[in-house]
Specification:
Order of helices and strands: EHHEEEHEEEHEHEEEH
Bound molecules: 1-O-pyrophosphono-5-O-phosphono-alpha-D-ribofuranose, uracil
Number of domains: 1
Number of strands: 11
Radius of gyration: 18 Å
CATH architecture: 3-Layer(aba) Sandwich
Shape: globular
CATH topology: Rossmann fold
Oligomer: single chain
Structural class: alpha/beta
Low-confidence stretches: none
């Protein structure tokens, strides 16, 4: 496995969730239910890369306990539209997390990313960023989003890109450009088809989650 790429453990339970979201016959409510479960696991995994410091506390039994406490400001940034499906998990897992948005759409003919709009917290340069987008295909959209974050002063090593499905083309493009950013992925698929869709993939995530 390349440096800074973390694929979740492929347990049978995890694969069963992926089998449902990949299945072309899966109905939208089942797709949402299973995708949400996967997203929650991915975001939990991403929190392992956030900083902590040691903290000693007293328990109700009078014992002292050498523990840890969360430190460091964080922000989740979703790539609209599909990344928005991952915001709820970020909010459920990280209390009071700030949310930013970057609207990037792939051109359907060329698969090249077009940036339309972004809205990010003023102090984003001080934060760790969980970059949320379910699909890493050519890597164009994610690379464009990281460029925007870096222009705003976010340190590359503080960016954790969380996705459900990636592929070698996207991983290589992303890691070549941003070797210090981390990728948390649920599955590394085989490659891309002629329209830059991931194979075997699951089709168009946004259409399946939000409706075509
Ligand atoms: C999808 C996906 C990523 C992008 C991945 O978004 O959510 O943003 O494609 O492809 P890439 O790695 O080749 O850039 P899309 O532009 O289809 O928009 P959507 O989220 O509205 O469906
Ligand atoms: N976007 C998707 O939703 N699916 C893919 O396979 C590639 C890009």
């Amino acid at each position: 496995m390349q440096k800074n790429i973390y694929e979740l453990e492929q347990t049978d339970q995890f694969t069963a969730l992926y089998t449902i979201i990949r299945d072309e016959t899966t109905k939208r409510d089942d797709f949402i239910f299973c995708a949400d479960r996967i997203i929650r696991m991915l975001v939990e995994k991403a929190t392992e890369f956030l900083p902590t410091k040691t903290k000693q506390i007293k328990t109700h039994t009078g014992c002292s306990f050498n523990g840890k406490e969360f430190i460091g400001k964080i922000c989740a940034v979703s790539i609209v539209r599909s990344g928005e499906a991952m915001e709820k998990a970020a909010r459920d897992i990280c209390q009071k997390i700030r949310i930013g948005k970057i609207l990037i759409q792939r051109n359907e003919e060329t698969a090249k990313p077009i940036h339309f709009y972004s809205k990010l917290p003023e102090d984003i340069a001080e934060r760790f960023v969980l970059l949320l987008d379910p699909m890493l295909a050519t890597g164009g959209s994610a690379c464009k989003a990281v460029e925007i974050l870096k222009e705003k002063g976010v340190k590359e090593e503080k960016i954790i890109f969380v996705n459900l499905i990636s592929c070698p083309e996207g991983i290589n493009a992303f890691t070549k450009k941003f070797p210090q950013a981390k990728i948390i992925t649920g599955a590394i698929d085989k490659g891309l088809d002629s329209k830059a869709y991931i194979l075997p993939g699951l089709g168009d995530f946004g259409d399946r989650y939000f409706g075509a």
